[in-house]
């Protein structure tokens, strides 16, 4: 079972590295002038990798339970303390996960900044303009004159 757990950790590490790589692409897209064309395939790949990571985590927890350890981080810490190969792979996985977390946090900040900018631009465009004859309305038409 230790070999199956080790194989799962190796697969998790590969998936987290792939996730970190896609986050790097997302960073480039978010800093591009027009990210809308670039983001859909990135979001699709991120979603796929998140699903894979969730399945691998479930597999890891199942293997830990079969070995008599609790699920999650506490169980992995216990299993790693009993096997050097597991400890080495677990350390690699944690470092990769931390790097991906930093990228994800940074991308979240980029998204927040872009959203704030867009909101300020919308606010500037929605400044109340006095209704004067000859001004176009939001529908692109000149409003009818009020009856006198």
Automatic annotation (TrEMBL):
Q: Which Pfam families match?
A: FlgN
Q: Which UniProt keywords apply?
A: Bacterial flagellum biogenesis
- Supply one GO BP term: bacterial-type flagellum assembly
Extent of the signal sequence: none
Thylakoid keyword on record: no
Query: Is Magnesium found in the keyword set?
Result: no
**Role this protein plays:** Required for the efficient initiation of filament assembly.
- Protein name as annotated: Flagella synthesis protein FlgN
| Origin organism lineage | Bacteria, Pseudomonadati, Pseudomonadota, Betaproteobacteria, Burkholderiales
């Amino acid at each position: 079972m230790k070999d199956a757990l080790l194989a799962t950790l190796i697969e998790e590490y590969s998936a987290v590295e792939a996730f970190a790589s896609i986050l790097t692409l997302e960073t480039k897209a978010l800093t591009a002038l027009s990210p809308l064309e670039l983001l859909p395939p990135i979001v699709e790949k991120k979603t796929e990798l998140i699903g894979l990571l969730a399945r691998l985590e479930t597999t890891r927890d199942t293997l830990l339970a079969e070995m008599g350890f609790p699920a999650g981080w506490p169980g992995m810490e216990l299993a790693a303390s009993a096997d050097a190969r597991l400890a080495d792979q677990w350390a690699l996985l944690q470092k990769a996960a931390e790097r991906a977390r930093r990228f994800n946090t940074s991308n979240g900040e980029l998204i927040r900044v872009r959203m704030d900018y867009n909101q300020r631009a919308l606010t500037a465009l929605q400044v109340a303009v006095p209704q004067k004859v000859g001004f176009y309305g939001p529908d692109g038409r000149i409003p009818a004159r009020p009856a006198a």
